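Bumping my old thread because nobody answered last time. Still need a sequence for this structure:
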């Protein structure tokens, strides 16, 4: 028990999460940017092939892997992992054919 607590405290927030955005799936709604309290994401100035300004990862080192952004995304354009492992709902979405399929 004590060992688990120590491990969590010693793991910097910055090392816990990883987020990727599929810019071609993104329709630029901005929900993920508004959702991320860590300010990891921002809207890009460039356009994707569909003419939308996609979200992009601007401060990856600040991602905790909470995956709220991925939950909010209506276009299943966000993939989040924590400590190198996909979040549970990412796997569920992939089984249904989401996330880059
Ligand atoms: S996983 Fe959490 S911290 Fe990381 S970008 Fe998404 S909302 Fe922000
Ligand atoms: S929530 Fe999804 S569709 Fe909306 S801006 Fe973010 S990545 Fe793009």
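Sorry it took so long. Here it is:
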């Amino acid at each position: 028990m004590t060992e688990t607590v120590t491990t969590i405290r010693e793991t910097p927030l910055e090392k816990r999460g990883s987020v990727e955005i599929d810019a071609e799936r993104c329709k630029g709604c901005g929900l993920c940017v508004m959702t991320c309290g860590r300010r990891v994401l921002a809207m890009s100035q460039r356009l994707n092939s569909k003419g939308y300004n996609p979200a992009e990862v601007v401060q990856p080192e600040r991602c905790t892997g909470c995956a709220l952004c991925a939950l909010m995304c209506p276009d299943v354009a966000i993939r989040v992992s924590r400590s190198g492992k996909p979040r549970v709902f990412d796997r569920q979405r992939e089984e249904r054919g989401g996330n880059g399929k």
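Residues 87 and 94 are 11 Å apart (CA to CA). Let me know if any region looks off to you.
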